[in-house]
Amino acid sequence: MKLSTPLKKASQTGKAQTAQSEPLLDGLDRIKALIQPMRERMQRYDQAILALAQARDRMIDLKDPQPPVMRLTVERELLLARGDSEGLARFDAEHGQALQDERNASERLQRERVEQPARIKALEQVAKEIASEMKDHMKDLFDAQQVAKDVFKPYAQACYDTAQAYVQAMQAAQAADHVLEAVTTFHWYDMFGDLKQFVKPELLSSRGDKVLPTDLPGIEFEVLRDLNHAVDRADSALYDQMRLEAEAAGLDSKPVRFYTPPGEHDERAVYTPDGLVPRRVKQMPIPVGGGFTVVSI
Predict the structure, then answer these.
(1) Biggest alpha carbon distance in the chain?
(2) Contacts 24+ apart (CB under 8 A), 67-71
(3) Residues 6+ apart with CB under 8 A from 265
(4) Do 201 and 185 contact (CB within 8 A), yes or no?
(5) Pairing of strands 195-199, 281-283
(6) What is the mean pLDDT of each run of 10 residues along the chain (297 residues)?
């Protein structure tokens, strides 16, 4: 990978390179091969957690459900009790399908009340199994980060090479500073033997945490200030190009979420984030002579 050419072109023109003979980030396919399976597990986990949240929300309704409609069932039972065979035949002819629908609805409600706790338990188990898969493949995430270090090495090497040249330039500047300061510094005395001041040329002051001191002779302060600020900012043209390369490789910039299963004896309920199901508004009983309270649950 020839790092210097794309770096130099992009930084000089200020525009992302639309056509590169070589990618700026060489190895994204290896990262995807390690990351993508975990993202798929994350998607499956999210689906299980959403279904779990919905099942728990439905369980709230089932704990105190509206009684099933049994109007037709009761009417038919009364006809049977009276022994009205003609009325019963007429009733069945007119309301047979509606009666069956009523019975089916009642049976579904009763069956759901029995099955819903088992459904919740099963969904929790599915989520735990997916989390176990994630744990089993946790090494893939660290391997992906190791690949990222390999991909980054050309940029690290470029920084090091440039830093070497920078250090050599700074060493040369400090040598010149020491010699020129020594031959031009003067001591200012008064005529009574008192030293009033050491007067030195301002050549190379302390850098502190800056790339360069901001009072270098012959270089404007604003130019040095901008340089010192720029060192901590990414090159926008290169960033745009690299981001496009990552997207083209199928890599998402959103963090991978990784879950570990609970311990064998951990009986806590699996967590479901807020907002997966609509918030409920429960109206409390209205006290005599009072208003009402709305409570969000």
Answers:
(1) 139
(2) 68/102, 68/105, 68/106, 68/109, 69/102, 69/105, 69/106, 70/102, 70/106, 71/102
(3) none
(4) yes
(5) unpaired
(6) 48 46 90 96 96 92 72 79 81 80 79 90 96 96 96 94 94 93 88 84 86 91 93 92 94 92 91 85 54 51
Sequence-separated (6 or more) residues with CB below 8 Å from residue 61: none
245 vs 10: CA distance, rounded Å:
15
Distances (CA, A) of 288 to 281, 283, 285, 291, 292: 21, 15, 9, 8, 10
Other Cβ atoms within 10 Å of 3 Cβ, number = 16
Separation between Cα atoms, residue 179 and residue 125, nearest integer Å: 76
* Paired tokens of 168: 């050599």
Q: How many CB atoms lie within 10 A of CB 79?
A: 18
Rounded to whole angstroms, how far apart are CA atoms 196 and 174? Answer: 27
Helix 85-136 to helix 71-82 angle, to the nearest 10 degrees? 140
Give CA–CA dist 67/62, Å, rounded.
Answer: 10
Q: Are 250 and 30 in contact (CB under 8 A)?
A: no
Residues 6+ apart with CB under 8 A from 119: 55
For helices 28-63 and 138-184, angle between their N-to-C axes, nearest 10 degrees: 120
Residue 6 has what pLDDT? 45
Of 127, 128, 116, give the one whose Cα is nearest residue 55: 116
pLDDT of residue 287: 54
At which residue do the structure tokens 């130019």 appear? 223
Contact in structure between 213 and 202 (CB atoms under 8 Å)? no
